[in-house]
Each structure stands twice: as C-alpha cells, then as structure tokens.
Amino acid sequence: MSKKKALGRGLSALLSDSDTEEKLEVDNIPVGPTVVAAEQQPTTPTSPANGISEIQIEHIEVNPFQPRSHFDEDALLELAESIRVHGIIQPITVRRLAHNQYQLISGERRFQASKLAGLTSIPAYIRSADDQQMLEMALIENIQRENLNAIEIALSYQRLLSECNLKQDELGERVGKNRTTVTNYLRLLKLPPDIQIAVRDNKLSMGQARAIISVENPEQQLYIFKKTLSEDLSVRKVEELVREISAEKATTKVETTTASNPASREISQLQSRLSSHFGTRIVVKSDGKRGEIKIPFLSVEDLNRILDILKVQGG
Transmembrane segments in this chain: where (predicted)? Predict the structure, then answer.
C-alpha cells in the first residue's frame, strides 16, 4: 500500500516492523530472535535495542475498538499452554497512554492467553496512535485474519464506513476487496438476527446466506433458513428454493391485493397452514369455485417425505 493510501496519519510507519505479527498469532510460530521464555520474564519494564519492551500485564488495558467479540475458548487454552512452555514468541503491539499505562492495539489473543498462562509481563512494540488510527488499525487488521467469520467482517466494514467516514470504494481499497465483495458482506447485516447468528456461528455458509438475501420478505427468509438447516440444503438447493419462491411472487402479490376479501383471507390462512404442515411453501389458487394446490419438492427424497405425510406409497 502506498503512503497516499495509508490509513490515518502514518499507519505504515506505525506497523512497519510488526506487519506480520498477527498472521503468526494462531500458531505462535517463531520468527527471529524475539523469544522470551515464560520463566525468563523480567519483573520490571525494559526497552531492548531492537524496539521491543517488556511491559507488566497489569499495566495494559484491552483495545476498546476491538471488533472481534468472540474468541474460541479451546484455541485460547491451547495458545496459553504453548506460551507456558515456549514463552511469547511474537510481541503484541500497544500504545502508551501515560506512565505505566498502555492500551492494546493488536495481539489480544496472545495477551489473554498470556494471562491464562500466568505471565506477569509481556514483550510489546510501543506505537503512537490516536483513537481514529486505533479504530482503523484494529478493524482492518481483524478483517484480514483468515478465521474471522462473515458477520464480524460485515460489522467491521460497517464501522469503517460509519465511524471512519469511508466510502465503499475507499473501503475496498483499504481491505483489498472490490466493491461487489464489500456490498455482499454489508447485505448480511440486513438479514434477521437469527440468520446472522447462524452465519456468525458457522451454521450457515456465506453462499447460503447470500442466496437467502435475494428474498426480500423476512418471513420467507426465515422459512428458507429453517428449511436449509433442517434438511441440510446445499447452496445450490437453497438457490433453487429461492428461485421457486421468487417465481411465485407475482401470484402472491395478486393474492395480497385482494386480502380484504374474506375468501382470500381464508385461502391465505389455508396456504400458511399447509406450508407449515408439509415443511415446504404450498401455493393455493382459487377463483371462488375451483382451484388448485401446488406442492413443490426439491428432490426425490423430498418427494418421498411429502408422500409419507400424505400416506401415499411411491411407485
């Protein structure tokens, strides 16, 4: 990234000698002579010639701009055990607030794991950064982590747009993504909370969620979502279901315009009951005298399931 595109004032200078530290956090992989064994941790802050200082853990506060809200507990315990055996291999990065008072910029997993490991001090790079730079660095650093879930990325994008006053094109340049990719992530935040939670918890993939977004009605989104989980639908099957529902949109719209008619309300209620009973969207059409009931299915297995409900044996 050129200086012209740098985040905030002098971001590249702030991270020039620690731009790879977060990439190494998960595996605690040694890089260079920065190993500080747990049993060799000094009890008072020092400032070695290589720019890394030993800071008392009790003097460090967490980053209030940290966009990540969830850390895997088992992975954190594994990292703590690694630190207990090998010590801190890659320093964290902090900013100085006052004498013996620091705030974390990056490396919260290492920081939390070090406390679990019983360390009293930790090696750190000390940087100068204002609140705006802190927010930009924390958000973009986390966005670029491979194990960040789609909702966390979307929330980080939204914060960069709203709190850092970036436009989508500028945001795309910051994170190395095209505008379409940024837009797809942001659209996830328009989904109902239950679906967002499923994406966050990796119960629903980004592809499945993107297909569901194509349906505007929240009730239909939740219907597709529940069906996707209960039947373990693939992305392709979810897309087929979405196309099917979209094809029925015109019919549904006509029914809605006549909803004031008692007969139409009864048809609509019947349609909802049947859809719930069969676990698929049923379409009921009637002109008041005659009509039809349409029961769609997605596969042979789905057809057999419907036939079982109807107590009809397949051929």
Answer: none
